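wait is this the right file?? whatever heres the structure
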């Protein structure tokens, strides 16, 4: 039973969001407020993430996609990029033990071309190690860009059309989705962004089309399981009409 103190409402377990997306923003500001280097904010962000994934899994959410590194994040100083990459590597290595023990399926989405061989190998290993788990599927968006994902899907379909394997008239919304990183996964129902910013920043542009957006001023390292539950309750109080009346 999950009870939210603030609005005295419980989560309706029968109407959970199937797929939650999270833009984990505010690590840098969290560190600055404490006079710490930005890297300390990212480390605290990785700790916060573990707790949130476990909570979502315990609640029974089926999919969670988290924005760990965008295609634009390469513009950051090399020192910060290197730190983030090492943090991700560690996270994937440890996840094999900790999150796999929690029955989490871990997948990386995004372009692997620019990633180091070490990270690519670790991704393959972690994905393989956790693939038969039956709990929540966690997509880590790593070197991910929503427009790039859509462009790549369009190119892959064009290729099939050129080779006579797909007919143009057979391409619809559902068929197109099969070419995305999230093929066979439901769309995002609830998108959470921390730190007070209210934009999508090229995250899951296709999958979030009918998603409910939920923003909080909390900085990502301060985001707690209770905040996740609050977001889910707010989500359940919204009227979703998907264009109908
Ligand atoms: C945005 O905060 C956060 C990121 C660009 C990185 C997100 C990474 C983590 C939460 C930790 C690592 C994740 C995994 C999966 C191990 P920001 O740096 O832009 O913060 P700011 O806007 O306050 O500067």
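ok assuming it is, sequence goes like this
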């Amino acid at each position: 039973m999950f009870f939210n103190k603030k609005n005295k409402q419980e989560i309706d377990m029968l109407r959970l969001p199937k797929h939650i997306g999270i833009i984990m923003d505010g690590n840098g500001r969290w560190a600055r407020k404490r006079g710490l280097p930005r890297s300390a904010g990212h480390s605290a962000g990785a700790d916060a993430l573990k707790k949130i994934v476990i909570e979502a899994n315990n609640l029974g959410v089926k999919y969670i996609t988290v924005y760990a590194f965008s295609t634009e994040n390469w513009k950051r100083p090399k020192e910060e990029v290197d730190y983030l990459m090492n943090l991700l590597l560690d996270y994937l290595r440890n996840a094999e033990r900790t999150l796999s023990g929690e029955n989490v399926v871990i997948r990386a989405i995004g372009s692997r071309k620019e990633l180091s061989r070490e990270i690519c190998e670790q991704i393959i290993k972690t994905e393989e190690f956790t693939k038969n788990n039956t709990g929540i599927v966690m997509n880590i968006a790593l070197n991910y860009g929503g427009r790039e994902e859509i462009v790549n899907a369009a190119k892959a379909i064009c290729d099939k059309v050129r080779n006579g394997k797909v007919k143009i008239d057979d391409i619809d919304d559902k068929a197109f989705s099969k070419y995305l990183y999230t093929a066979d996964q439901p769309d995002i129902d609830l998108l959470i962004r921390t730190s007070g910013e209210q934009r999508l920043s090229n995250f899951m542009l296709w999958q979030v089309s009918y998603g409910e957006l939920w923003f909080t001023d909390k900085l990502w390292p301060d985001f707690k399981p209770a905040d996740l539950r609050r977001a889910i309750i707010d989500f359940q109080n919204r009227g979703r009409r998907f264009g109908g009346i």
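The longest strand covers residues 63-70. so i think its the right one actually
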